[in-house]
Each structure stands twice: as C-alpha cells, then as structure tokens.
C-alpha cells in the first residue's frame, strides 16, 4: 500500500466557518508562516506537484483547503500567517478563523507545523501552539529547508527549536516532535509519513512507499572478487 497522503484529491475550499465540511473523517492540518515551505512540504508528501500551490506571492491563499486522502481522512492546508502586506482587518479575520479551526475542530487529529529551520520558533508559531496544544493533540514540527544547513548545524537548529518549544510549553512539549525536513532534498519524508500514518490509525508496516526510492538504501549486488574483470584469470 502506498502512503495514504499520496495522490490526495482536492475536496473543497472554506473561507468561513459555514463553509467547513461537517466534521467526520480524521483531519490532519498543515500550518506555517508564509514562505516557511508549507506548500512544498505538502507537495513533497503528497507527491503531486501543485497539489497545494507553491506560490511566489505569500499570503494570497487565505482559505482553508481540504484534500481527500485515499483512506478515510482529510489533509487540511491552513492559510499561511505573518505576511506583512495583508490589510490588518483581513489578517485579523483569517487569524481568528484559523485559531477557531485549530482550537475547536472535533475531527482534527494532529497538526503539522512547518517552520523554516533557520528562523526558529516565531511569535506567531508560538501563538498558534498556545491555542492548539491545550487540546492534548499531537504536533509534528517540520524543520524545513534543512538542506540549507550542514547536517550538524541542522541538528543543532532542530534541537534549539525543540528547546524553545519546551521552554514555552513545558506541560505539553511531550506532544511535540521536531523533524529535520527538506522538500527539495526529500529529507524527513519517511519520518513524517510514519507519524501521519499513525495519526490516521495506519500501522507502519502497512505502508510501503513506492515512489520515494531515494530514501531507501540502495541495493548493490556484491561484486564477486577475482572473477569478472580479473586480468589474472583466463577468460
Ligand atoms: P509556503 O508559503 O509556506 O507555502 O512556502 P512555499 O512552499 O511556497 O516555499 C517558499 C519558498 O521556499 C519557495 O521558493 C520554495 O521553493 C522554497 N522552499 C520550500 N521548501 C524548501 C526546502 O525544503 N528547501 C529549500 N532549499 N527551499 C525550499
């Protein structure tokens, strides 16, 4: 079975509470500051370019987009926050809409928070977690663009991010996992898939990712020594 996130289908867009689908199937929401790499992360996981439109004009997508998974469940793309050029009133409207969804949505089973690993935990990320974490539900932080750092700097930045979350939310930090991630280099995809699969109630060994061969160890046939290509041996 491929991972259920792959080949998700667009379902609907909601710009207000009334437009949300009735709660039912488990929902996994993706949130993040504009330009953090949320659309790229969704695309990397769903393996379908332009599933969530990667945009060069951050802040344009102000609605909540729902995608139907191949198993019972929905992927929910929340509006990116923190884009300065958005009028204040509109910004407030959609920040309230976003917080209401995160704080009260019954069918929400987990939150994926995308944070540019080079920026660390921002004030708006903190506010979002402050509203969501008291529900006791889990968070997977994708520390994205980790390809822009060396592996050790990436690990340090990931650790610093986890420490900042622990300091800010000591009682709930155990519900948060930080994973170094890169959409471009496909780092952290399998870890993210395993976590999201668990949130959807799918056993790890039921998922064989057929489309990300780069993460699998390469199989090399052992080269028989002293046989082929050995100039000392007569053909
Ligand atoms: P969003 O606004 O959070 O949806 O961010 P996007 O996915 O549109 O990405 C914003 C910019 O960051 C784009 O130019 C992407 O190409 C770039 N980007 C996203 N993820 C990565 C990553 O993992 N590595 C690198 N190097 N660039 C990335």
Report what the structure shows.
The chain is an alpha/beta fold and 235 residues long. It has a single domain, classed as Rossmann fold. 28% of the residues lie in helices and 17% in strands. The protein has five helices and seven strands; from the N terminus they run E-E-H-E-E-H-E-H-E-H-E-H. A seven-stranded mixed sheet has the order 1-3-4-2-5-6-7, with helices on both faces. The longest helix has 18 residues. The radius of gyration is 20 Å and the shape is globular. The site of guanosine-5'-diphosphate (GDP) has 19 residues, from helix 1. Guanosine-5'-diphosphate binds next to helix 1.
In percent, how much strand structure appears in the residues? 15-25%
Backbone structural class: alpha/beta
Number of strands: 7
Number of domains: 1
Q: Which CATH-level-2 architecture? A: 3-Layer(aba) Sandwich
Summarize the helix and strand pattern as letters: EEHEEHEHEHEH
CATH topology: Rossmann fold
Which ions and ligands are bound to the chains? guanosine-5'-diphosphate
Measured between the Cα atoms of the first and last residue, the distance is 46 Å
Shape: globular
Count helical runs.
5
Low-confidence stretches: 55-59, 209-235
- Per CATH, the class reads Alpha Beta
What integer value in Å does the Rg equal? 20 Å
Mean pLDDT: 83
């Amino acid at each position: 079975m491929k991972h259920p996130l792959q080949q998700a289908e667009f379902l609907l867009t909601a710009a207000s509470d009334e437009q949300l689908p009735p709660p039912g199937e488990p929902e996994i929401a993706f949130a993040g500051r504009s330009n953090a790499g949320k659309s790229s992360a969704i695309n990397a996981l769903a393996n379908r370019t332009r599933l969530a439109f990667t945009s060069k004009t951050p802040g344009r997508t102000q609605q909540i987009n729902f995608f139907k998974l191949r198993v019972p469940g929905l992927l929910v793309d929340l509006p990116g926050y923190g884009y300065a050029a958005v009028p204040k009133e509109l910004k407030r409207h959609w920040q309230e809409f976003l917080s209401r969804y995160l704080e009260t949505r019954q069918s929400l089973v987990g939150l994926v928070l995308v944070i540019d690993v080079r920026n660390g935990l921002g004030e708006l990320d903190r506010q979002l977690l402050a509203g969501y974490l008291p529900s006791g539900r889990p968070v997977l932080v994708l520390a994205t663009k980790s390809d822009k750092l060396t592996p050790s700097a990436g690990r340090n930045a990931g650790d610093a991010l986890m420490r900042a979350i622990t300091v800010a939310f000591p009682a709930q930090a155990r519900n948060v996992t930080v994973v170094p991630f890169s959409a471009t280099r496909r780092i952290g995809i399998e870890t993210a898939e395993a976590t999201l699969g668990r949130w959807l109630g799918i056993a790890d060994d039921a998922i064989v990712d057929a489309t990300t061969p780069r993460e699998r160890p390469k199989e090399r046939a052992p080269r028989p020594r002293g046989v082929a290509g050995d100039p000392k041996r007569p053909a």
